Amino acid sequence: MTTRHTLDVPGAHLHYEVRGTGPLLLVMGSPMDAGAFAPLADALAVDHTVVTHDPRGISGSTLDDPEQESTPELRADDVVAILDALGADSADVFGSSGGAVTGLALVARHPNRVRTLVAHEPPVTEILPDADEQRAAMESIVETFHREGVGAAWMRFMTVAGFDLGEGGAPTPVGEPTPQDLANSARFFGHELRGTARHVPGIAALKAAPARVVVGVGAESGGLITHRTSVALADLLGSEPVVFPGDHGAFLGQPEEFAEALRKTLVR
């Protein structure tokens, strides 16, 4: 059974969902919403209380000011507000991609609210030796969005990220995007991507926190920029990345296998 809730926070109204029983586990993305994580959450809910949410400005989490910029720090504070609403002192956290960046900000800002953070392929390009080049590439994605729209921006994003677009130079269509898909994409490119990509992890704060921080990387993500950032982040933290099944979005197509790998990672 899944229960759905709305939480008012400064400047926004957050949609979050709760399913299952057992230790509290927050599963999050950015810009991915709660619905995208439903298969993984269902797989985990057999032995965890799993909380997913729509990041502010995405899907059901509406903003008082639609032009507000999204930052990992702001999203981290939203996560703490959800924990408060649940009456929870702390939780385990799984964040993927931009959600992993949110998780890193969460541990740095609120170190006592997280037990274990599994940061799966965070795109923290500012820690790379070629950070200037990566920053320029990110800006080119935003510029493409403003100049040519969502479709062209996603093409540019996929190219910069290192995804194989196939012989035709385009991803395989998975159906027509809904109006909500288009709105979420516009929000991502217009107000979220820049803040996420420019986040610099507070390495000293992450090391000093009582939370356990685990960096996850996909077994098939070798060609992606997020593989480079994950390896680099783990190195800065003095650890080895934990290998998860599949690639960057494997939890979508392999939720049961991915959930089992996550369970093993959460065990101290």
Short précis:
The chain is of the alpha/beta class and 268 residues long.
Describe the structure.
- With 268 residues, the protein is α/β, with parallel strands linked by helices.
- The chain has one domain (2-129, 198-266): Rossmann fold, CATH 3.40.50.
- Helices cover 44% and strands 19% of the residues.
- The protein is built from ten helices and nine strands.
- The protein has helices spanning 38-44, 72-86, 98-109, 131-148, 150-161, 179-197, 203-208, 225-237, 250-253, 255-266; strands spanning 2-9, 12-19, 24-28, 49-53, 62-63, 91-96, 114-120, 212-218, 242-244.
- Strands 1, 2, 3, 4, 5, 6, 7, 8 and 9 form a nine-stranded mixed β-sheet that branches.
- Helix 2 (72-86) packs across helix 3 and helix 4 (131-148) runs antiparallel to helix 6 (179-197).
- It is globular.
- It starts with a strand and ends with a helix.
- The mean pLDDT is 96.
Strand content: 15-25%
The total of helices stands at 10
What is the CATH domain class? Alpha Beta
Task: Give the number of DSSP strands.
Answer: 9
Biggest sheet descriptor: 9 strands, mixed
Coarse structural class: alpha/beta
CATH topology: Rossmann fold
Mean of pLDDT: 96
CA distance, first residue to last residue = 28 Å
Structural domain count = 1
What does the overall shape look like?
A: globular
Helix percentage range: 40-55%
What distinguishing features does this structure have?
single chain, 268 residues, alpha/beta, Rossmann fold, 10 helices, 44% helix
